[in-house]
Amino acid sequence: xxxxxxxxxxxxxxxxxxxxxxxxxxxxxxxxxxxxxxxxxxxxxxxxxxxxxxxxxxxxxxxxxxxxxxxxxxxxxxxxxxxxxxxxxxxxxxxxxxxxxxxxxxxxxxxxxxxxxxxxxxxxxxxxxxxxxxxxxxxxxxxxxxxxxxxxxxxxxxxxxxxxxxxxxxxxxxxxxxxxxxxxxxxxxxxxxxxxxxxxxxxxxxxxxxxxxxxxxxxxxxxxxxxxxxxxxxxxxxxxxxxxxxxxxxxxxxxxxxxxxxxxxxxxxxxxxxxxxxxxxxxxxxxxxxxxxxxxxxxxxxxxxx
Length: 306
Prior knowledge:
Layout lengths: L15 E6 L12 E6 L5 E6 L1 H7 L6 E2 L5 H5 L11 H14 L8 H10 L3 E5 L5 H15 L2 H18 L8 H10 L2 E4 L3 H9 L1 H9 L5 H23 L7 E7 L2 H18 L3 E7 L9 E6 L6
Parallel strand pairs: 1-5, 1-7, 5-6, 7-8
Antiparallel strand pairs: 2-3, 2-4, 8-9
Helix pairs in contact: 3-5, 10-11
């Protein structure tokens, strides 16, 4: 096997590709449970925990299921937000990765995230959870530890140093830990149902107007629009700052929720694709589990380069 170089100078010849990933049932099949009250045969209500798949089936059955009487929907989605005394997300991420080690099938974008990390490309995690960016970044670090082999982590570091050399003009590198810190700090992590993220969206005049115009719209979808736009702007300004204008740019988005896929595809066609005409946008619908990597749809082709 050809040895992996300390610095991969070939990254300068690569096409510019960036990725945006939903997490649950897209990268990993998480064991996180939703807490609901279920009507019993005698008419009483009992607190139960269910999978996200079961919740999708029963959530409209208001006769037999309801949010917990003590705490409401915040209590129902207790495990989907950060807690002062426990990190549910990291524990569930580790459990999901260990299940893969024992033969369970990963999410359809699992290998895509592995490749993104190996190649050292910028990415964003955009999920309808309430976790902080720090929690989501820690989950990516766990993913790197469990999902990448020693050789793949070595490949990742070689590529990261290559990008630092050619685009940040660095000739002396830090430790592997320091270079990984820098790389992950350049990526975005959005738990769109978190309070701080919600406040950011409401402070944006464009999205505040959207919410007022269509108060019945599902907020997670609007929030994902905001997070995606934020990452695309970050990519755009990073390329400009590094003098990389004129190269073809591709941004992929993957999600297992059909409503999210439909909303984001429409958003790209209507707004994002027109604003960033030099970018190619590709959406991966991973809702159909019979398709190993989901269904690929090219939403917007570049009319000109940036």
